[in-house]
Amino acid sequence: MKKITLLIAVVMLFAFQTIKAQNEISAEKRQAIKDLIALINKDNNSEELFRVLMTQMEESNAEIIKTILDERTDLTQAERKDLEKQLVDNYKNQSKVFQDKLMQKLDYNAMTEEIMTTVYDKYYTLEEINDLIVFYKSPTGQKTLKTMQPLMIDTLKLTQEKLGPKILSVIQEIRDEQKREIAKKAEEIMPRKRKTNNK
């Protein structure tokens, strides 16, 4: 109970500090940040990026399911394929329900604006924010904004392609090590049981 009370106190303190920090932003700086966010969000849909991230998670999960089922020698290839489809479809359905319910409960754009305001205020002065606005209004800045989201999506996809197999390989290594450790512990226990039974 004390731990829960402490956790609630820490969360409330953090929330209070965030609100306090936001209230301390001058009206001029707040407006400049708002203008900057409007420029950034014009060609970039934060909600769409969130959905892309969720899709990436679904694809990673599908790979993990396939890898696990490929190890099952007690199933025929047809049974493995059928079970894989069921599990992947089930995860996708759960993911969609989660996304839909989450989007109903929050205003994603308002939340993004609130977060960006806090972060830009923390790392940039008013002068630097105005410099960014000037840059993003330039031809190079406009191109940067237009390519920002597709660039991020491509980066995520390529990262998954490069990192995915390595993650699966590491997971497999850890599972193999765990199997060996369990087998070793089982061997240590079994002789003791045999000795006890022989007495």
Please summarize what this structure is.
With 199 residues, this protein is mainly α.
Explain what you see.
The chain has 199 residues and is mainly α. It is 90% helix and 0% strand. The protein has seven helices and no strands. Helix 2 packs across helix 5. The two termini are 50 Å apart.
| Shape by Cα distribution | elongated
Major beta-sheet overview: none
> What structural class do the secondary elements suggest?
mainly alpha
Based on the structure, what is the oligomeric state of the protein chains? single chain
Mean pLDDT: 79
Residue stretches low in confidence (pLDDT < 50, at least 5 long) are none
Determine Rg (CA atoms, Å).
26 Å
Which percent bin holds the helix content?
over 70%
Report the strand count: 0
Order of helices and strands: HHHHHHH
Number of helices: 7
Characteristic terms for this protein:
199 residues, 7 helices
Secondary-structure blueprint:
Layout: H1 2-23, H2 27-42, H3 46-70, H4 77-105, H5 108-123, H6 126-137, H7 139-198
